[in-house]
Structures are given as structure tokens and as C-alpha cells.
Design goal:
Pfam families: Response_reg. This is Response regulator. Keywords: Phosphoprotein. The modification 4-aspartylphosphate is found at residue 57. This protein is of the alpha/beta class and 125 residues long. The chain has a single domain, classed as Response regulator (Rossmann fold). Helices cover 44% and strands 22% of the residues. It has five helices and five strands; from the N terminus they run βαβαβαβαβα. Helix 2 runs parallel beside helix 3. The model has no long low-confidence stretch (mean pLDDT 96).
């Protein structure tokens, strides 16, 4: 079963590469994208049964990925929230943990770990 992903990322190049990589390597189907906090929050909250994993960048064109994460704390138990950011510092990881994030990945050196995580989630579904 394909894992249904919603991606909140404002950089088009990163977003398109991520969609392609996850589709090819992790059996992930992207069901939507957002470039801003408002778009991401609105879609995720009104389409609760249409996604399995949300991949969120912290720095967006407008707003913050932290706002998206905070808005999704009441998601269903099987839905996963992950952060993919260039700023995956210890402080950021701690804040994400407080917001109920399932995993944090650094864009610069943990893409393979994100792919592995998605593969595991897809197999478990």
C-alpha cells in the first residue's frame, strides 16, 4: 500500500526532488503540497483521512512549519508528522518533540534516513 504524503515545503526544487525520490524509493504517493503555514494547516486539518504522513519544512514562504506542526497535534494515531529542515539542531529537535513530531531529518545529510523511515511506515500500513 502506498503511503500518502502531504509535503509542506516552499522551495520548488527541493519539493520536486523529494516527491520524485520518495515515489521511486519508498512507495510514497504525494497527495498535496503547500508553500505556506496557512495552506498546510488548512489542508491537513480539513483532509484528515486523506494523508498518512506530513513532511514539513520549518522555514516557509509565509509563516512557520512549527505552526503546521502545532495545528496537527490532534491527528489520528496512525498519522505521522516529520520535519525535514536545514536547521535540525538539538534545540529544534527538542521543540519538535514537544509538538508531537514523530521524526526530524536534516536536509543536508539525512535524506536516506527519511526514505528509510517512509519505507518502514509504508510496510507497516
Amino acid at each position: 500500500m502506498k503511503l500518502r504524503a502531504y509535503i509542506v515545503e516552499d522551495n520548488a526544487t527541493i519539493r520536486e526532488n523529494l516527491i520524485e525520490t520518495l515515489s521511486e524509493l519508498a512507495d510514497v504517493e504525494t497527495v498535496g503540497i503547500a508553500e505556506t503555514e496557512a495552506e498546510g494547516t488548512a489542508w491537513l486539518s480539513t483532509n484528515g483521512h486523506h494523508w498518512d504522513i506530513a513532511i514539513v519544512d520549518l522555514f516557509l514562504r509565509q509563516g512557520s512549519g512549527l505552526g503546521v506542526l502545532a495545528a496537527c497535534q490532534e491527528r489520528s494515531a496512525q498519522q505521522r508528522m516529520v520535519v525535514l529542515s536545514n536547521y535540525a539542531t538539538a534545540d529544534v529537535r527538542a521543540r519538535c518533540s514537544q509538538l508531537g513530531v514523530d521524526a526530524v531529518f536534516d536536509k543536508s545529510n539525512e535524506i536516506d534516513a527519511l526514505v528509510d523511515y517512509c519505507t518502514q511506515q509504508s510496510a507497516a500500513a
